[in-house]
Structures are given as structure tokens and as C-alpha cells.
Design goal:
Blueprint: H1 11-26, H2 30-39, H3 41-58, E1 75-78, E2 95-98, H4 100-107, E3 133-136, E4 141-144, H5 147-156, H6 161-187, H7 190-202, H8 206-215, H9 229-234, H10 236-242
Antiparallel strand pairs: 1-2, 3-4
InterPro entries: HNH, HNH_nuc
Domain HNH nuclease: 50-104
Pfam families: HNH
């Protein structure tokens, strides 16, 4: 999971969401009305489709799930579940792109709260996941830094084996691509340098590269990252191409 920047809604799309929220607000059974409105064929065409395009543009790599970063995002997820707060059904700030595993099989309507009533799940468009989660690169597993981090690991299944194995492979791809970029630079081969960067940016598990880039600037980085990889991760030109 990495920090993502939420884009602004176009005015015409934002205008389409207001009457839908008004409809839910006026209904005696808001949850039922919200579910029906969300599934309406006309809404799927005029609201779902443009919302999803915006989310896909925000997502890492090739339209990856904003939770696990592995599978391609197929669903518009309501961060705060519709069943809990139907008035946020058409709230753009409540929409994330998720794969069906994270959305339908794991997260579902789970939305743990802290004692003060604030969400215990990390919203990657509103806060930096790395404030709450530490990625152990050697194992491909997440360690919680905060209660919010632990809840996110649990609810989204961030340490399920298919993800930990995928992160281990992603690290190997990142290392190989960094070395390829360096070879291209030494030969003055701009195409090879560009391909190496694209390989990293478009593979699953963007969190692996982003973790490596952050770790490279921390004290003790040399105990985890070997040369020449460490020096490459500190290279300003390369960092500018890879940081999101």
C-alpha cells in the first residue's frame, strides 16, 4: 500500500452525484435506497464508468488494487462501507479502486474504529501508509507501526502468502531493473534506461520499490541494501523517475 494523490472531480460528474445523495438523504430506508441507486443501470453508465476511469488514473502500476497492490482493480470500493454510512455512497472521497479479493472477500463491510470513533483502516488517498506500516523487504511481510496499521493488515489480509511471495519477486525485479538502468546510463542508452524505469513502474507491488527508496535514505540502510543497489536508490535522477 502506497500514498496516492486523489484527483479533483470534474464539475459535470460532481453535479451528477449531488441528486443521488439527496435521494438517499430523503429516503426512510437509506441503506436500501443507497444499494438500489448504486446498482441502477443508468448510474453504472453515467457515474461508475467515469469514477472508475479517475480511480484507474490514480492507481499505481497498471490500475492496481489500492489495498494489496497485486491484482488489477476491478471494483469501486466504499472505504467507509455503504451499510455503515449510506450518505457516503456517492462521496468521491470515499471511493477507492480495489480487486475483488480485497473488496468482496476480505474487507467487505468491515470497518473497525478506534475508541474515539475514528477509522482504524488506512486510506491511502488521505494519509501515508508508511506512517502505519513497515514493509520487511527480505520476507515481503508488513509489520504494524500503529494500531491502524495492524487493523489494515488484518482486514485487508496484507500478509497472505500470495502477496508476500509476490513482494519478494517484486524486489528481485526492482534490483534487476536498477542494474539495467545503470548499464544503460554507462552506455548512454536512453532507451534501456527508460525501459528499466517502466518495468519498475508498471509491475505489481509498487510498495516494494517505494519502500526501498525510503529505506535508502535512512540510517542503517547499508545493513539491508547492498551495493551498488543502495547507491542507485540514492541517485537523484533515478529517484525522480521512480518516486510517486
Amino acid at each position: 500500500m502506497i500514498r496516492l494523490s486523489r484527483t479533483a472531480l470534474p464539475d459535470d460528474l460532481a453535479g451528477r452525484l449531488v441528486p443521488l445523495t439527496d435521494e438517499i438523504t430523503a429516503a426512510p430506508d437509506r441503506v436500501r435506497t443507497a444499494r438500489a441507486a448504486w446498482k441502477r443501470a443508468a448510474v453504472r453508465r453515467s457515474v461508475h464508468a467515469p469514477l472508475r476511469r479517475l480511480l484507474e488514473d490514480m492507481a499505481p502500476g497498471h490500475q492496481r488494487c489500492m489495498y494489496c497492490g497485486d491484482s488489477q482493480g476491478t471494483d469501486i470500493d466504499h472505504f467507509e462501507p455503504l451499510s455503515r454510512n449510506p450518505l457516503r455512497t456517492f462521496d468521491w472521497l470515499n471511493h477507492l479502486l480495489a480487486c475483488s479479493t480485497c473488496n468482496s472477500n476480505l474487507k467487505r463491510d468491515r470497518f473497525p474504529l478506534a475508541g474515539d470513533g475514528t477509522p482504524l483502516l488506512v486510506d491511502p488517498t488521505a494519509e501515508d501508509p508508511f506512517d502505519h506500516l513497515l514493509l520487511t523487504l527480505a520476507l515481503g511481510t508488513y509489520v504494524a507501526l500503529t494500531p491502524k496499521g495492524q487493523a489494515t493488515i488484518d482486514v485487508c489480509g496484507l500478509n497472505r502468502p500470495v502477496l508476500t511471495r509476490g513482494r519478494e519477486q517484486a524486489r528481485r525485479v526492482v534490483v534487476a531493473s536498477l542494474l539495467r538502468w545503470a548499464r544503460g546510463r554507462d552506455r548512454g542508452a536512453a532507451d534501456e534506461m527508460r525501459e528499466a524505469v517502466l518495468t519498475v513502474r508498471w509491475q505489481p507491488f509498487a510498495d516494494v520499490c517505494q519502500s526501498m527508496l525510503r529505506l535508502a535514505l535512512m540510517p542503517g540502510a547499508a545493513r539491508v541494501l547492498d551495493e551498488p543497489v543502495l547507491s542507485l536508490l540514492r541517485d537523484r535522477e533515478l529517484r525522480d523517475r521512480l518516486l510517486v
